[in-house]
Design brief:
The complex is a heterotrimer of chains A (277), B (265) and C (290). Chain A is an alpha/beta fold and 277 residues long. Chain A is built from 10 helices and 10 strands. Chain A has 2 domains: 240 residues, P-loop containing nucleotide triphosphate hydrolases (Rossmann fold, 3-Layer(aba) Sandwich); 36 residues, no CATH class. In chain A, helix 3 runs parallel beside helix 5, helix 4 crosses helix 5 and helix 5 packs parallel to helix 6. Chain A starts with a strand and ends with a helix. In chain A, 53% of the residues are buried. Chain B is mainly α. In chain B, a hairpin with a 2-residue loop joins strand 1 and strand 2. Chain B is flat and about 65 Å long. Chain C is of the alpha/beta class and 290 residues long. Chain C folds into 2 domains: 226 residues, Rossmann fold; 44 residues, no CATH class. Chain C contains 11 helices and 10 strands. In chain C, strands 6-7-8-3-9-10 form a 6-stranded mixed β-sheet, sandwiched between helices. The chains are: A alpha/beta (277), B mainly alpha (265), C alpha/beta (290). At the B-C interface, helix 8 and helix 10 of B face helix 2, strand 6 and helix 3 of C.
Chain lengths: 277, 265, 290
């Protein structure tokens, strides 16, 4: 479990006003959750993510991972192993010159013996569906495939938590879909707790809980269905409403009460519209 | 405009020959031995034996000689130039005279020796890089360097730098091409002007390239840290290097031949 | 005719082991003042195609005409072509290099040999086109936000006064706010300054709303060419087949139709969808009363 208490973070930049990136954040993340953190640029979502595995330390407040405080230097490496992290740019997080070597990178750091390593690399390759690509050089892969390599490299370390910091932002729709499928699978089949960061509303649909960040504060926290009801609030946080949700919202307001304003998927909308037309 | 697409890097040709399967450490050391030998010997027979050795290596590796000569092509002029230099510039017993140039016996021998030396040197290193993937080459170098830990040689760090360089060469080449095209679209001109202007024209490529490279380095460092990287201490290796009997045999043969050739010639 | 591509083929690494066909017999005509969208999967040849428009790539076979001039023949002033057809690459903020924004935007005009006076005029003009304040000129381009940097990069192409602007994924990796800002500027550049636009994008929803003509590429070929409404209504199945899909509301109406409902196809925007549903309900109610 992850517990964040009164977390604030201030960036001090020489000769400029300090930036308050996070203000008094309180958040608990349970095992097995699929939590999405959403917010526009500058909302503090990446800063929050980097506190969870101790890449950043709080200006004030605390972060505990399974009872270990990230400020405790002794626990740092244990925390990094418990909390895996995937970043935005797939090119800039692959270290080794082949897919399998890169997946093994974290395991080598952990000092895992070779036999065990081989087993874990094979497992990770299979989970992300890249078995045929194990000997490929990373620059020959598509964006979505590279991002899956990055995910495989992290899950091979057997973390309890997986943070993905805007992993889809630089991908095309096809790559996006691939990555989201893999994340869903990791959460549902492998029981990994997922903390998924994005600025796209249509990507929160698969999660169990959504936290909306705005200007360093938690603005909304709840199930996707409930969050999507707050169309006006979301707009004011500079977030986009998917077309279908917007249509549902409008029709509901026009008196079509059988159309739920928190319709998230096209299929749902089709079902509901069939009642009317 | 596809400036970089035609350059093949590392030029490793995958294969499954005896040479391919030798331990990279043994191959690197064998290569070194031959090269040292090349500079020690001073008789025709020595060159012939070494040449035959390397050439049989190429035949065993089943690599098409075309690839071997491709590596040679870029350097052939250098070889010819040094050969001619020696040919004309060495004093001694004159055997031939054209206008002001004179060719001496010593010059002829020297020139031929220098050319063979360079020629065999290139063949040897080509054989190494053609049959060894960059990754096992790096591994081999890391292990070899780690034998020198007692003089505080940062073997792991050197190897990590090599790995990252290999990993990012294609990415950076692609990026350079893209930036060049983008700046050309903005009105830049890389083809005309004198040398000063041409150098100045590189700024629009170099600045963005460096800015991006620094950002990449920064992000890569964070990603490595997040995966628990903290130097070579306590690290294990995914790639296993094992010395087999054939490696020992190969190494013994090379060493023996090298010593014999070295002493005799 | 402003631009004409005739049987253009392009192959990377021709006659090499890694030979790949990127463009396969492309025929395309573009008139002045058009607003065109180009969609297709990564690797379908979009980027290769747009690099032919300003002579960065020369076709393996076929011809490219800009205002009637075959730009592949020897002696053509490609600099002039590149000034006419402004090409904005993906992530253009990665090419910024000058000390301040004024110099960044002035780079192109300076290479054209304009006077200081003219350069200054152009810089201010294009800053207005991308809706950035004049006070920006002194600042370093690297001090800006991602969205602003991208607008500066677009401004640095606009300062060449191109007749056509080609943009490769100008909204990639921007948040919703930055995205709508850029898109509304592009629309403005087309509507108010009469510049021909070719917009490459993955964002189906936005592209369906904005453009007048849509090109769909797949595996090196232009497979569809027409108005968004035409393409999304008549060729919906094909788009789904090649995995590009449809905008959400379009897909919703497409599936209603598939279930036998008599409803309009090729609906492009939320507003239109809302109107159609309400109209349909009203019609049904009227029928019931009768």
């Amino acid at each position: 479990m992850i517990k964040i208490k009164n977390l604030s973070h201030i960036y001090n930049i020489p000769r400029r006003d300090p930036i308050i990136a996070l203000k008094e954040i309180n958040l608990e993340i349970e095992r097995g959750e699929f939590l999405t953190i959403i917010g526009s640029n500058g909302s503090g979502k990446s800063t929050l993510a980097r506190h969870i595995n101790g890449l950043l330390l709080p200006t004030s407040g605390d972060v505990w991972v399974k009872g270990m405080n990230t400020k405790d230097r002794e626990c740092l490496w244990k925390i990094r192993q418990e909390v895996g992290m995937v970043f935005q740019n797939p090119d800039n997080q692959i270290v080794a010159t082949t897919v399998e070597d890169d997946i093994a990178f974290g395991l080598e750091n952990m000092g895992i013996d070779r036999e065990n390593m081989l087993e874990r690399v094979n497992w990770a390759l299979q989970v992300v569906g890249l078995e045929e690509y194990r000997r490929f050089e990373p620059h020959l892969l598509s964006g979505g495939q590279k991002q899956r390599v990055a995910i495989a490299g992290v899950i091979a370390m057997h973390p309890s938590f997986l943070i993905l910091d805007e992993p889809t932002a630089m991908l095309d729709p096809r790559g996006r879909k691939e990555v989201i499928e893999v994340i869903k699978k990791l959460n549902q089949e492998e029981g990994i707790t997922v903390i998924f960061i994005t600025h796209l509303m249509e990507e929160v649909i698969e999660s169990n809980r959504v936290v909306v960040l705005n200007k360093g504060e938690i603005a909304l926290n709840g199930k996707p269905k409930d969050i999507f009801l707050k169309v006006d609030a979301l707009r004011s946080f500079a977030l986009d409403i998917p077309q279908i949700t917007e249509l549902a919202f409008r029709l509901n307001h026009k008196g079509l009460k059988n159309i739920s304003p928190s319709t998230l998927k096209v299929e749902e909308m089709v079902e509901q519209l069939c009642l009317y037309v | 405009m596809n400036i970089f697409r035609n350059i093949s890097f590392g030029q490793y040709i995958p294969g499954n020959s005896l040479i391919h399967n030798f331990d990279p450490r043994v191959k690197i050391l064998g290569c070194l031995l031959i090269i040292i030998n090349l500079f020690l010997i001073s008789q025709f027979w020595g060159f012939l034996i070494l040449g035959v050795m390397v050439w049989s290596g190429i035949i065993i590796s089943k690599i098409h000689p075309r690839f071997v000569f491709r590596g040679l092509r870029t350097i052939i002029y250098l070889i010819l130039f040094t050969m001619l230099l020696h040919l004309f510039m060495t004093e001694g017993e004159v055997i031939f005279r054209i206008w002001i140039f004179k060719i001496t016996k010593e010059g002829l021998i020297n020139g031929l020796f220098i050319a063979s030396r360079l020629f065999i040197l290139i063949l040897t290193t080509s054989l190494l890089t053609l049959t060894t993937s960059p990754i096992s080459l790096t591994d081999g170098i890391e292990r070899l360097l780690s034998y020198f830990k007692f003089i505080k040689l940062p073997a792991h760090e050197i190897a990590m730098m090599m790995t990252i360089a290999l990993r990012f060469i294609p990415t950076l080449l692609e990026e350079t091409e893209k930036i060049m095209k983008a700046q050309i679209s903005r009105g830049a001109d890389f083809e005309s002007g004198n040398i000063v202007n041409r150098t100045k024209n590189l700024i629009p490529i170099l600045v963005p390239l460096f800015v991006n490279a620094f950002r990449r380095a920064d992000e890569l460092a964070i990603a490595m840290e997040a995966k628990g990287y903290r130097g070579g201490e306590g690290r294990t290796h995914y790639r296993e290097l094992q010395i087999h009997r054939k490696d020992i045999l190969f190494f013994t043969i090379i060493t023996a031949l090298a010593i014999i050739v070295g002493i005799l010639f | 005719m402003f631009i004409r591509l005739e049987n253009v083929n392009y192959t990377y690494n021709l006659n090499m082991p890694f030979e790949t066909v990127a463009l396969n017999n492309i025929n395309l005509e573009i008139e002045k003042g058009e607003f065109i969208g180009l969609i297709g999967h990564t690797g379908c040849g979009k980027t290769t195609l747009i690099q032919h428009l300003n002579g960065l790539l020369t076709p393996t076979s076929g011809k490219v005409y800009i205002e009637g001039i075959d730009i592949c023949q020897k002696g053509v002033n490609l600099k002039l072509i590149r000034q006419k057809i402004g090409l904005v690459f993906q992530y253009p903020e990665n090419q910024l290099f000058e000390e301040n924004i004024f110099e960044e935007i002035a780079f192109g005009p300076r290479k054209l040999g304009l006077t200081e006076e003219e350069i200054k005029k152009r810089v201010y003009e294009v800053l207005e086109m991308v809706d950035l304040d004049v006070s920006y000129t002194e600042r370093s381009p690297f001090s800006l936000s991602g969205g602003e940097m991208r607008r500066i990069a677009i401004a640095s192409i606009l300062s060449l006064k191109p007749q056509m602007l080609v943009l490769d994924e100008p909204t990639a990796n921007l948040d919703p706010q930055g995205r709508s800002k850029i898109l509304s500027e592009i629309k403005n550049i087309h509507d108010h300054y009469g510049i021909t636009i070719l917009l490459v994008s993955h964002n189906m929803e936005k592209i369906a709303e904005m453009v007048e003509r849509l090109l769909v590429m797949n595996k090196g070929k232009i497979i569809l060419d027409g108005s968004p409404r035409e393409i999304f209504s008549r060729h919906a199945e094909q788009l789904i087949d090649i995995g590009l899909g449809l905008p959400q509301v379009t897909q919703c109406f497409y599936e209603l139709k598939k279930r036998g409902k008599s409803i309009k196809e090729g609906v492009l925007t939320v507003e239109e969808a809302e109107r159609e549903v309400l109209k349909k309900i009203k019609a049904l109610a009227n029928n019931l009363q009768k």
